[in-house]
Amino acid sequence: MSVSIVNTLLEKTKEFSIEETLAFLANEYKDKVVFSTSFGQEDQVVTALIAKNDLPITIFTLDTGRLFQETYDVFHRTLKKYKKEIKVCFPEAAAVEKLLQEKGPNSFYESVENRKECCFIRKVAPLTKALKGNSIWITGLRAEQSENRNNLDLFEYDAHFDIIKFNPLLKWTLKDVQKYIDDNNVPQNALHKQGFISIGCAPCTRAIAEGEDIRAGRWSWESSHKECGLHQK
């Protein structure tokens, strides 16, 4: 069933612009279309498209409790500019307390397993709650962000969260993203100008050098696939 829905959406929207597709989804799945933002460059573009067209799409963010101040700054500027509500989802306090009491505040540095546990508590569990009951999940994923994302489609079924994902910027390059931001005066995280391309939690993110992979700054002490569990590909 989910595969047929994906195919139908791909067919119906194949001639649509991103904005037309967003409007179509908002109308087709009333009150069941959500967009998750981490306030990165791609997400800021999608937020701008939603806000500019005054689309009835719920925007939410995951506050892990360990974000950069610069992320909160762009969050604030985004609210001021677009006057659109952004729902904030927090991890369960009891789960965070238990993790820190049993393993300390920096257990994620000790193993991939520990890091993924922290990601699950702070990101995956809140996301699961935020997506529940919705039909379409809009993301800011781009194919060139990582090898894992090269085989993504514009629409796909995410079995883990039981939801259809729409990846509107899938074929955009980083230059495309930056041009849209510059041309439309979109607020962006100040860290992007300091070599931070992919920005997550402060302890788990560093700037990258010229020529390094875009995801090299995430969990730089690991040789894993550099994913936190929000996106299974």
From TrEMBL:
It catalyses: [thioredoxin]-disulfide + sulfite + AMP + 2 H(+) = adenosine 5'-phosphosulfate + [thioredoxin]-dithiol. GO terms for biological process: cysteine biosynthetic process; hydrogen sulfide biosynthetic process; sulfate assimilation, phosphoadenylyl sulfate reduction by phosphoadenylyl-sulfate reductase (thioredoxin). Its cofactor is [4Fe-4S] cluster. Its EC number is 1.8.4.10. Catalyzes the formation of sulfite from adenosine 5'-phosphosulfate (APS) using thioredoxin as an electron donor. CDD domains: PAPS_reductase (cd23945). Keywords: Cytoplasm, Iron, Iron-sulfur, Metal-binding, Oxidoreductase. This is Adenosine 5'-phosphosulfate reductase. It comes from Flavobacterium alvei. The keyword Transcription regulation does not apply. The active site is at C228. GO terms for molecular function: 4 iron, 4 sulfur cluster binding; adenylyl-sulfate reductase (thioredoxin) activity; metal ion binding; phosphoadenylyl-sulfate reductase (thioredoxin) activity. It holds the Pfam family PAPS_reduct. Binds 1 [4Fe-4S] cluster per subunit. Transmembrane segments: none annotated. Pathway: Sulfur metabolism; hydrogen sulfide biosynthesis; sulfite from sulfate.
